[in-house]
Amino acid sequence: GMYVFFITLPLMLALIYFSTESQNSFNDLSLFLKGHKFILGFIVLSFCILWYHILSGLRHLIMDAHIGESLLASKYSAIFTISLWIITTCLDFGESFHEGSTIWYLQRTSAVVNLIYIVYVFYFIYSTELTFEAWTNFFYSSFMIFLTLFFFGSVIVHSFIGLWTVGTDYLTKR
Fold first, then answer.
1. pTM for the complete prediction?
2. What string of H, E and C letters represents the secondary structure of the chain?
């Protein structure tokens, strides 16, 4: 968590800033990263760590819901999380690594948006006395309507990219 907060997030903000400042700054950053493979590797490593952190956080959210809390289930969920991280990381760095960076960022961003929404809803459920009135007031607020629409859009983007990736990886002739 500390690495993500103090390294990956500031790095991501700097990359976003310099890549969106102007066409020249975008081109300069692109050329710089192509010429400095070590720095590019550090950036990739940072995003891999963020991805593992997100997967581990999802595992812990599931365990917080009292699913898979036994010692054996915890062991297998840890193995599954690490395996999923390794597999998805390897798939992401295939032949379309540089060309697919937009898709990669969309997939990760939509995953974070989905996670934030789910955490927010679960926080509401566990922090208040859940009644019909509280539930409907929660979901009928303007903020929650907007957030829910944004969440469903994010789920659609995330699902489309995931299905497209599976389709191009496994359902095409090579």
1. 0.51
2. CHHHHHHHHHHHHHHHHHHHCCHHHHHHHHHHHHHCHHHHHHHHHHHHHHHHHHHHHHHHHHHHCCCCCCHHHHHHHHHHHHHHHHHHHHHHCCCCCCCCHHHHHHHHHHHHHHHHHHHHHHHHHHHCCCCHHHHHHHHHCHHHHHHHHHHHHHHHHHHHHHHHHHHHHHCCCC
